[in-house]
Write a structure and sequence with these properties.
65% helix, mainly alpha, Four Helix Bundle (Hemerythrin (Met), subunit A)
């Protein structure tokens, strides 16, 4: 329960915390081990991925520039908390080499990078 409360505090109020603070504190907790879900269920990577992409695309589609910092914090937090270990590593790698921007173009480029890794079709990012 304490881990869940800290998660809510750190993630639900990202505009008040620096991404490094979140990463350092979450790393100490170890929510998920070896890419498995600790909720008593098997992780459905396809379902989690589809849901995450939907959420991220909607955030950038409807987001205001004033929330740019919160979006960057969210992406850094996903690189620590995403329930798939391999995907977390890919998120961390991508945001380490591509400055996070809350834009449809950035999200499309990120999504295509993942699709290339997975052998899935890429989307036309001309927006």
């Amino acid at each position: 329960m304490q881990k869940f409360i800290l998660y809510i505090i750190l993630v639900q109020m990202p505009w008040r915390l620096d991404a490094n603070i979140i990463n350092n504190n979450i790393n100490k907790i170890n929510f998920l081990e070896e890419g498995t879900c600790n909720c008593g269920c098997d992780l459905d990577r396809e379902k989690v991925g589809t849901s995450a992409w939907y959420l991220l695309h909607e955030i950038v589609k409807h987001g205001d520039d004033e929330y740019e910092h919160a979006f960057r914090t969210l992406m850094h937090t996903l690189s620590v908390l995403y329930p798939c270990k391999e995907c977390r590593a890919h998120i961390k790698e991508y945001i380490g080499t591509h400055r996070v921007e809350m834009s449809e173009q950035w999200m499309c480029d990120f999504h295509n990078d993942v699709n290339v890794r997975l052998g899935k079709p890429i989307f036309n990012c001309t927006i």
